[in-house]
Design a protein that fits this description.
With 252 residues, chain A is of the alpha/beta class. In chain A, 34% of the residues lie in helices and 15% in strands. Chain A contains ten helices and seven strands. In chain A, strands 2-1-3-4-6-5-7 form a seven-stranded mixed beta sheet, sandwiched between helices. In chain A, strand 5, helix 7 (186-204) and strand 6 form a beta-alpha-beta unit. The longest helix of chain A has 19 residues, at 186-204. Chain B has six helices and six strands, in the order E-H-E-E-E-H-E-E-H-H-H-H. In chain B, strands 2-3-1-4-5-6 form a six-stranded mixed beta sheet. Chain C is of the alpha/beta class and 358 residues long. Chain C has helices at 12-22, 37-46, 60-72, 83-99, 115-120, 137-154, 164-168, 217-235, 255-270, 288-294, 311-318, 346-356, and strands at 8-11, 27-30, 53-56, 77-81, 103-108, 130-132, 157-162, 170-173, 202-203, 209-210, 213-214, 239-242, 249-252, 275-280, 282-284, 300-303, 325-327. In chain C, the strands form four sheets. In chain C, strands 3-2-4-5-7-6-15 form a seven-stranded mixed beta sheet, with helices on both faces. Chain C has a five-stranded mixed beta sheet with strand order 12-14-13-16-17, with helices on both faces. A two-stranded antiparallel sheet of chain C has the order 1-8. The longest helix of chain C has 19 residues, at 217-235. Chain C is globular, with a radius of gyration of 21 Å. Chain C starts with 7 loop residues before the first strand and ends with a helix. Classes of the chains: A alpha/beta (252), B alpha/beta (180), C alpha/beta (358). At the B-C interface, helix 1, strand 2 and helix 5 of B face strand 8 and helix 9 of C. Strand 2 of chain B pairs antiparallel with strand 8 (170-173) of chain C, so a sheet runs across the interface.
Chain lengths: 252, 180, 358
């Protein structure tokens, strides 16, 4: 049975996006970018916003997002965001990082920044794979997922277990909002956008650290056809990483 | 006028506080001072040494003094370095309650029974300030009042109860020299 | 009661802190490590009083990246460590250089073994780190303000090479703010304000710009940055000589080592020896032309540094006559591992100079 060919549903690009992205068909990251920029616009904070963007396929977004950005070292975005926010408390500071960036290289940065209660919003684009380098295992690759460094699928015996960074962050005092969404369905996109909005509202209120994890499709890194990304995501990442706003367990 | 001194002793004798008090008093009085410290790793009983150079404008001094005009010996242990740097005929002010003045050669040796003097002044833990009062008066670097002010500045709030005793010790040390 | 004076008795770290605050430093992040810890402590006490922020970061890598962020947002910022901690910061130093961000980095080193690290750098790419090596606390106070000025002037990370004596010696100092001249406004600094204008600011080592306004890209940008460092090299080399004009024997030393050599030069001159000192004040750019001129008439050029021979390479490269260069320094470490050993002392230095002069 052949699947339906992808069809262009709408050409509706926010003004804050300055050009086409060059990412793979079926990639979820551009969707995340779009809803992020929509939220900044809706909240009227574009002229106060400063983004700190890590390294991954999404790194190229620094060329097409009409928001001030610092492109930083792999994993270090939360630390850079800390410095920016401390000296410019009126700015709205966010990070954009992939799972390789935040949960591999930068695990201590995000945990320390969260525990310090820095009033910034970290955004994790989690597709369970190092897409930019060609599809390698990360700390969030789920058990059974095939990557170029876990060819037969992640096996706990050899590769250990994935790290649910949102749950770790939610366990720390100093944190005001943690949520996990997915951009694999229209409903998911809408719910994720609301999560982003809540996170930024908490930053505007000065409540402390916020993290929004967004499960995104990476059909290339998952070795599935472009249109099968959402289905694969539901069956694999979503099963390992439950969606929704996480209860905050940290006691100050 | 330039004055150099190496104060040597063991940890716990207040060497560093003595040295800093002297350097601070000189600074507050409009002179220039340089203070370097060398402490061993142990919390008690290891070597403790400090050098203080006081001069007018244009003080030039090395953090490790190649030679010194004076030494204050609080304890015989670990004193070899300081005594080795003393110029021939230089001043060695010795805490004779603990260290043997007779063991020091080729120097103008002045014995000060600092522990006894401190006890007599009802400041049994302030032998170091007895020696400091004696030294500063002997060398005419700064007065006892200036030392007292500097000491007050340096003693942390949780040790404030020692200030009065320290002042008595400084006075007693100065008095020993003036009486001699 | 003595009259009040603005002169204070300060240890080097505290004096550097006052100088940095006088220069307008308002952000500092660091990780405790001896003998840098005193600087973190004094910044922690004094920066908030001055309206700034001091963070005891959870790691050196985090510290330097926090400072990078603060610098990107336009603040005068600083960090530091000793060589062991700076080893972790190398990537970020390169990033700062290629991002063209100003930052002052205090290497409160344990000895002189970090010369290569400072002057060659351990990060990636074609960048250099302007490094000043004061010989004592008063000079460190001067250099601190100069470094904040130079960092902003050139939009680059710059370094102060300190050591345990500079960190811990107490001296009477008057820390006054110095006016080092006007600087261009930091219109490149991020504050959010250009968001949505189509020309929003971007700080990126690859400098590819926005889709609507492409930048020079890595090729153009990295060549421009390399050229900028060539320009700095031509303008900012600094050195001093001491009794070197008619010297038969010229000793080359930097930092605290030079302070000791000065004293030995005086002693040996009094004994009739024609000895002088050449002191690089910038380690990078190395004062090559000055050294060539100073060594033109010297019979021998003796390099004294507390390491296995690092500045030695630069001296050999730029001395008028390479065959005249001899190494009289060495690795010499205090029993604690944290400071200079017995070689940094007048008697052994004097001995080595005399030995080499025979």
């Amino acid at each position: 049975m052949t699947e339906a060919a992808p069809r262009l549903v709408a050409r509706d690009r926010p003004e804050l996006i300055l050009g086409d992205h060059g990412l793979c068909p079926g990639c979820g990251e551009p969707v995340a970018l779009r809803i992020l920029l929509e939220v900044l616009e809706e909240l009227g904070i574009v002229e106060r916003s400063i983004g700190v963007v890590g390294h991954g396929c999404y790194g190229s977004f620094v060329q097409i997002m009409d928001v001030e950005v610092l492109q930083c070292l792999h994993g270090r975005a939360p630390s850079c965001a800390t410095g920016i926010k401390r000296v410019r408390p009126a700015a709205v500071v966010f990070t954009m990082q992939g799972d390789g960036d935040m949960v591999n290289e930068g695990l201590q940065e995000v945990l320390h920044t969260a525990a310090r209660g820095e009033n910034v919003t970290c955004i994790l684009l989690n597709n369970g794979v190092f897409g930019d380098t060609g599809g390698h295992q990360t700390a969030t690759t789920v058990v059974g997922q095939r990557t170029k460094t876990s060819l037969d699928g992640r096996d706990p015996e050899t590769h250990g277990y994935p790290i649910p960074v949102a749950e770790l962050v939610a366990s720390l005092a100093g944190v005001s909002y943690v949520a996990r969404g997915a951009v694999s369905t229209a409903g998911g996109v809408a719910r994720t956008k609301r999560m982003l909005r809540s996170a930024f509202e908490h930053q505007l209120a000065g409540d402390g650290f916020g993290l929004v994890e967004i499960l995104t499709m990476c059909p290339t890194g998952w070795f599935v056809p472009a249109g099968s990304g959402p289905e694969y995501l539901s069956g694999s990442l979503e099963a390992a990483y439950p969606l929704g706003e996480l209860p905050l367990r940290g006691q100050p | 006028m330039r004055d150099e001194v190496i104060i040597t002793g063991i940890g716990g004798q207040g060497i560093q506080l003595m040295a800093k008090t002297l350097a601070l008093a000189a600074t507050r009085g409009g002179q220039h001072a340089m203070l370097t410290s060398d402490v061993g790793g142990e919390m008690r009983g290891g070597p403790s040494q400090a050098s203080v150079v006081v001069d007018d404008e244009g003080l030039r001094a090395l953090p490790i003094l190649p030679s010194t005009g004076s030494v204050v010996v609080m304890h015989h242990k670990h004193s070899a370095f300081a005594l080795g740097r003393l110029v021939p005929g230089g001043l060695a002010l010795v805490n004779s309650s603990v260290a043997d003045p007779a063991a020091i050669r080729d120097a103008e040796v002045i014995a000060v029974p600092a522990l006894e003097i401190a006890r007599a002044a009802n400041a049994p833990n302030a032998a170091g300030f007895v020696m400091l009062g004696a030294y500063a008066t002997l060398r005419r670097i700064v007065g006892v009042a200036a030392l007292g002010d500097a000491m007050r500045e340096l003693v942390p709030p949780y040790r404030a109860q020692h200030v009065a005793a320290n002042l008595r010790a400084l006075d007693a040390g100065a008095g020993t020299v003036l009486a001699a | 009661m003595t009259t009040a004076t603005t002169r204070q008795l300060l240890d080097g770290c505290s004096a550097i802190t006052e100088s940095a605050i006088a220069a307008g430093c308002r952000f500092f992040a660091g990780y405790p490590i001896s003998p840098f810890t005193g600087l973190l402590e004094s910044m922690s006490r004094r920066l908030p009083e001055a309206g700034g922020h001091c963070l005891n970061a959870e790691s050196e890598i985090e510290a330097v990246n926090m400072a990078l962020g603060a610098a990107a947002a336009g603040a005068r910022a600083a960090t530091g460590s000793c060589g062991q901690g700076l080893a972790l910061m190398q990537e970020a130093i390169a990033e700062l250089a290629l991002n063209e961000l100003p930052l002052v980095i205090f290497n409160m080193a344990r000895n002189q073994q970090d010369y290569f690290q400072a002057t060659r750098g351990g990060g990636w790419g074609d960048y250099r780190t302007l490094t000043l090596a004061p010989k004592d606390v008063p000079e460190a106070v001067e250099h601190t303000q100069l470094l904040f000025h130079l960092a902003d002037r050139y939009r680059a990370p710059v370094m102060l090479y300190g050591d345990p004596f500079i960190a811990q010696t107490h001296v009477s100092v008057d820390v006054a703010a110095r006016d080092l001249g006007p600087l261009p406004a930091k219109d490149w600094a991020l504050d959010g304000s250009t968001g949505g204008t189509g020309r929003s600011r971007q700080i990126w080592t690859w400098a590819m710009g926005k889709a609507t306004e492409p930048g020079p890209g890595p090729d153009g940008h990295w060549r421009a940055v390399a050229a900028k460092f060539d320009g700095i090299a031509a303008m900012e080399a600094r050195s001093e000589t001491y009794r070197a004009d008619d010297a038969e024997t010229l000793v080359v030393a930097f930092g605290s080592a030079a302070l000791f050599v000065e004293h030995v030069v005086d002693e040996l001159r009094a004994d009739g020896h024609r000895v002088g000192l050449f002191r690089p004040v910038t380690l990078w750019p190395f004062p090559a032309d000055d050294l060539a001129a100073a060594t033109r008439n010297a019979r021998r050029v003796l390099v004294f540094e507390l390491n296995a021979g690092q500045m030695l390479d630069d001296v050999r490269q730029f001395t008028h006559d390479r065959a005249a260069v001899h190494f009289i320094g060495g690795v010499s470490i205090h029993a604690s591992g944290l400071s200079f050993g017995p070689l940094l002392d007048v008697a052994p230095i004097r001995e080595r100079i005399l030995e080499a002069a025979e």
